[in-house]
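pls design
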């Protein structure tokens, strides 16, 4: 699936909200997490890396920057290995073993205890997972195979 920009119309005086679809819900099994290397545009229109991790739990999705607050390394120690190995109920930093709550991103154990992952606002539109509040470059993964998520 290639990344798509969608506008959601809102009632009242509020401006329309632009969301970017980057993955189908069905591409992430429930109770699993997956990483995406997206590209955002900064205020000057320059492209910047935007690595995120998305956790799906039933019909809910949670998104965070893929950076540990302890020292800024990616959370996954192997590609798309984000959840603790014993129970899979928390995100885990592969470098120092810090554990983070899935729904809040708060570190509950490890060297960054009490600090949190940076949340990424996500919404689900027509069974697509979409990022909100960030302008993404729209040419991500044009060569992705059918059924693949953008940014992999």
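designed seq:
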């Amino acid at each position: 699936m290639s990344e798509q920009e969608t506008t959601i119309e809102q009632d009242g005086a509020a401006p329309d909200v632009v969301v970017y679809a980057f993955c189908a819900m069905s591409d992430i099994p429930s109770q699993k997490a997956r990483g995406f290397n997206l590209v955002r545009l900064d205020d000057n229109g320059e492209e910047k890396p935007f690595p995120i991790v998305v956790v799906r739990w039933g019909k809910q999705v949670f998104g965070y920057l893929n950076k540990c607050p302890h020292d800024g390394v990616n959370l996954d120690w192997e590609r798309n290995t984000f959840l603790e190995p014993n129970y899979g109920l928390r995100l885990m930093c592969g470098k120092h073993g810090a554990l983070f709550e899935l729904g809040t991103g708060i570190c509950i154990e490890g060297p960054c205890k009490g600090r949190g992952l940076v949340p990424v606002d996500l919404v689900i539109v027509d069974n697509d997972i979409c990022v909100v509040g960030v302008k993404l470059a729209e040419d991500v993964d044009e060569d992705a195979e059918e059924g693949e998520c953008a940014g992999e």
